[in-house]
Every structure is written in C-alpha cells, then in structure tokens.
Design goal:
15 helices, alpha/beta, about 450 residues, 14 strands, about 40% helix
Length: about 450
Amino acid sequence: MLEGYLIEGRRAAEIAASVERAVGTGELEPGQLLPPMRELAVELSVNPNTVAAAYRTLRERGVIETAGRRGSRVRSKPATTGREYIRVAVPDGVRNVANGNPDPALLPKLAPAFAAAAERGDREPVLYGESTVDPELARLARRALDADGVPDGPLTVASGSLDVIERVLAAHLKPGDTIAVEDPGWGSLLDLVPALGLRMAPVGVDEEGPPVDDVRRALTSGARALIVTDRAQNPTGASVTATRARALRAVLGDHPDTLLIEDDHGHGIVDLPLHPLAGVTRHWAFVRSVAKAYGPDLRLAVLTGDEVTVDRVGGRHRLGPGWVSLLTQRAVAHLWAEGSPDTAEVAAAYRRRRDQLIDALAVRGVAAHGRSGLNVWIPVPDETGAVARLLHAGWAVAPGARFRMGAPQGIRVTVATLTAEEAVALADAVARALGPAPTRNHV
C-alpha cells in the first residue's frame, strides 16, 4: 500500500512524525492511502488507540484526511509540502500568465521611501519595548478605513493577509471547527484552513461575491466563521456589491456569534467601492495588505476588528516575531502620504487589461469573469486538457484545481502585464483549446 515506505514508532508522536517526515520528503505522495489503523497497530505491535491518536494528530496538522470507511490518505495539499505544487512548469519561450503577480511597472519606487525611513531610524533607533505600530501608519490606515466605511476599532500590523487570517482563526477557533470559505477561492487559504485542523464549508462565488443562500446554509449548518474577499477575489475577480453586502449583513445578523474575516487585499488596485460587512457580529476582523499595490516583498498588512480579536492577535504576535519592522511600516506610511503610486491609474490599467481579454474571449464565444483585480477566470469543461493545450500553444495558465473544492472547473489568467495584442492572441488560443462550439463565431 505504501510502496516500500515503512511507518515507524511506538508512541503516537513517533508514528505521526514518521508519516509527516515521509510526506515532507515525498516518500508518501498526496492522495496516497494509509494503512487502516488496526492493520498498522498490528504491524507496529502497538495498541490501536495509539495509531488512532497519531492519525488524529496528523489530521489536526493538515497532513492527512479521513473519509469514513474509505480510510485515511495524505491530503492533496498536505501542510508539510509546498502549497503551490500544482503550479505549471513554464518552459523557456512560453508566456507566463499564471503567476498572480502585479505588474512591476505599476509598483512604486521603494528606494526613496526606505531612505526616508532609514534616515529617521538612524536619528531615532527602534529599541525593545517601543510601540509595535507606527503612529503615522496607523493614522493613515484609519483615515482610509473610515473613508471606506469600515467600523471603528483598534488596529495592529502583521506580515501579510494570510498571516493575519491565521492569527485571527487561531485566536477564536479550535481544531475541528468549521469555516465557510469561498469556492473557488484563494489557494493558500484553502491550504491553511485544514493545516490548522479546521474544516471547510464551501460557499460559491458569483460576480457580486458569495451568494446569500450559500452563506446562510453554511452558517445554519454550524460554520463558526466566514471568510470573504471584498474585492479582487482570487481567482474570479468578484467584488461584493452594495446590494449583496446588505443581504449578507442580514444573514450575519441572524448569526451574531459568527467570526467574520474580510480580506481587502485589492485595496489600491481596484476602482470599485468597498462595501464592508463588519459591524453585525460580535467578533470581526478586516485585513488590508499592501502586496498587490506596493509590492509583495513588503510583507505588511493592517488589521482592525473588535477589541478582543485585535488584542488577542497583537498579544500573540508580540510573543512570536514581536513586531513588523518599523522601518517597513514607516516606508509604507511614506508611500501612502506621498500618494505613490497613483492608485486610480493603477486600477484603470488593470481594468483595461481585464476588459481587453474578456471582450476578446466574448467575441470568440468564450465566457470569462473578472470585475476587479489582476485575474480573469475562464470556466472550462476540462481544465487539465485546456492547460496542456494552452501550454503547447505557448501560454502558461493556472489550473483551476489550485483554487477549487467542489466548484466547476476553470482556468485562471493573470492579466497584470498582458498587452492588447497578447489579449487577442491568448483569446484565440483559448478558443482553440476549448474546441469548436455551435455558439462560437470565430473572427
């Protein structure tokens, strides 16, 4: 069953470590079936309860999953392996529109901002025991949040959206709890949740965000938390509208104990208004990162929320990394104060590139989605075949499997650096890859 790999150990911790080590080295592959607990107990000469405890530990760590009588197997994306292993290898000469990165040409120049921050640091060195949040960064962040209608609350800083989300979940939930998540949704989040020992209840996504009935069903069925991407949803580009936000707030009002987490990673690259959901549940978190508009390497996100949530996240952060570099915080504050980059121009550029591809696909009878953000989502009947045919045609796109649980198949195209000419060429390639259809009119 394990093709030669022998699980070892006498104690639960040793057995779990043996399996986790093999998954990390690739000796046990994603999807591989593990021995039944009683069978492994006999093989190791231990009590079946010992093996059961080991398997329980592995489930809580996001290494394996159990499906009743079908047994336990290594997760398709175990926490001990790289999260992006489904990425398509991009050969030389193939145009990469799969990576999800912003356009470097639209990012601000960082040298002046860091020089200003470093100069201040030379004058006033940051030492232990000082404030972990730069006051100017907090002031500018709060001003922008107020302008967008985000409820008032304390504020802290962490290392990116995923870091914040992980800390918020850990602050309120325990292994075995269920979270309502978007499907299709952000691949890294879909890996993080089971890695924390949490369960996922998928909710669909349309152009206006999560459908109300899906969210109501998930919360009524016992989901303790809901994670929503307000704008630039990855991979579909969905953006929560005012009408959808009102309806979702009504549902959340019926479930006030729900932990609500909102991700506004699209701030600075979208030209659609924000319609936050916060304010109707006891515990909520709103995270705004700088990765897409200012550069992924800055590793900074601002969190606001209810007092309990922000206090727990900030306190746990201080016990670990301590704080996000004040040098980085001050550099970001400098960029915000200078209005660099021009976010309206950046958002308009990304909108133009999305529209060019979506329009070109529509002419060829191919439906696509992308109201906001860096990506366009294209539903396909066979994503494996579509990805392979497009790769052969010189285009590397992201397979939908990186983003889906039960949602229909699709492919994701990052349009961040796509030119008008490339949009037409890519639309032609997609139409050919999907094959002829009666409703298509090729031009």
